[in-house]
Amino acid sequence: MAFDPWSPEFIAHPYEVYRELREKEPVSYFEPTNQWLISRYADVNALLRDHRRLGRSYLHVATHEEFGRQPEPEFQEPFWRVVRAGMLDVEPPVHTRLRRLVSKAFTPRMVESLRPRIRQIATELATRFAESGGGDLIAEVAEPLPVTVIAEMLGIPEADRHLLRPWSADMCKMYELNPPLEAQHTAVRAAVEFADYLRELARERRERPGDDMISTLARIADDGDRLTEDELIGTCVLLLNAGHEATVNATGSAWWALFRNPGTLERLRAEPELLPTAIEELLRFDTPAQMFERWVLEDIEVHGVRIPRGSEVALLFGSANRDPEVFDDPDRLDLGRDPNPHLTFGAGIHFCLGAPLARVELQESFRALLRAAPAIEPVTEPEWKPQYIIRGLRELKVRI
Question: What is the pTM assigned to this prediction?
Fold first, then answer.
């Protein structure tokens, strides 16, 4: 099997292909997407941190035409207007300014203060799930927890929260490799609806602020600098999308990894104090975001391969997290692995701002399920969704 991000077989089992890439061709050109695949940990880590020569965007240094790229189709403009108003797809100095402002409202201390409420939500979900005898763990536990948490943080009314997951899932389709035209239009429509909804909500909070994060983001300032309305909307979209999409997929993938390693699951049941290191290992073992891309702003050389300005590199997080040069016996699920310098949350200036929140959510979700449903087991082997970059299971049917 070769690298094929549209193949269901590859999406389900990419790790043997990654091993061959690392050993035989750590820098390889992938013609279908016009990208250079980077598979070894040391290279992925170094390139993530090289924000001078690589970037999530190139528009801060050149136009599309100057960079040798075709402008995005006009119909996509509403999508990119929303996305580029947040910090994910921009570079310094804009990224530096946005991250500084948003970090004032999204501190690790604030996240840790949410743990009791996250534990309460997780316990309620796990108890209800156990009392019903099981079901789809993803739809009934993995999705509701992070969606509820981030919605409560931002102050999204409960009656509107059912809108968030579909909008998020539809927007994330644009980040897949060569997305079909229909998926592109779906992502644009979701971005417009999402932004319109949040814009109205943000204007209400500016007039009648509460103790939610939208109100906080609307009033935070640094030397008089504030988020514009578009930046506030883009930040909220990013927090909502990144705040639950990867966590949902990580939860499902982690439970499926444990079910495939029953001895390891039994160890976790017997030693719940392992949860902090266990969560790190589960995030390494089956990475929810398998690939992140960077544009080459200046010529670089990786393993003797020259990659010219204007190219795009595909950093294979899933491969880097299984690199035996960094992780002993990397295909073994070791819940006590320490140290565990996985790259699941990225590295460098774009390191995931929501990593502390994801860790708390995963720890409390697993703790609650292990207590409420100690005899959980899968009913059938699950199918993976057809997306590769943001990888996760369609559903995970279990019984108790």
Answer: 0.94
